[in-house]
Amino acid sequence: MTFSLVARCPETGMFGIAISSSSPAVAARCSHARAGVGAVASQNVTDPALGPLALDLMAGGLSAADAVAEVRRRGRFIEYRQVLAVDRNGMTAIHSGPNSLGIWTQAQSENVASGGNLLANDGVPQALVEGYLAASGHIGDRLIAAMRAGLAAGGEAGPVHSAGMMIVDKVSWPVADLRCDWTEACPIEAVARLWEIYKPQLDAYVQRALDPRAAPSYGVPGDE
């Protein structure tokens, strides 16, 4: 009931994940990323604990492939899980258990990996990867382009209702964590609209945390 993409920007070192599902609040359960370490999607009959586990393993020095192999060894009911990972070197790895739902498949390249289940067709993850690689600009722009490409290729077998995008960079918290937890319209476009609003302010929000004295004005009533 989900399709997703994990990615690393080789120019900036940023990591990102974008995800969409017919289930509510998919990004709250399935999206995991850590600056300087990697990004992980844990989906399909989801065990959210697998995301932090994979990130801890990569933080300890394991590659994405070795981390995913260890997740497979430690995880419970791993035959039901999909886990996608990209590490600090841009290497990717994917586990898709044989009990993944419906049409499920995966695709990967350097710096980017995609997987999905209950898909409209088995070409959706490859469309996400190609959409990401064909796009340019900020990693957030490329993640949105990838999700739109996946949706255009068929997306889920049924309508999607939630989506999210997370980006990490240098600091210990996500520099962007945008979500649409439920809509009857297109949640990917809802997140895309949020990104258009948030992108020009991203650096300012980081600066406000690091040193509010150097931060720009909030620009809201009462902040004179």
From TrEMBL:
<protein>
    <submittedName>
        <fullName>Ntn-hydrolase superfamily protein</fullName>
    </submittedName>
</protein>
<dbReference type="InterPro" id="IPR029055">
    <property type="entry name" value="Ntn_hydrolases_N"/>
</dbReference>
<dbReference type="InterPro" id="IPR010430">
    <property type="entry name" value="DUF1028"/>
</dbReference>
<dbReference type="Pfam" id="PF06267">
    <property type="entry name" value="DUF1028"/>
</dbReference>
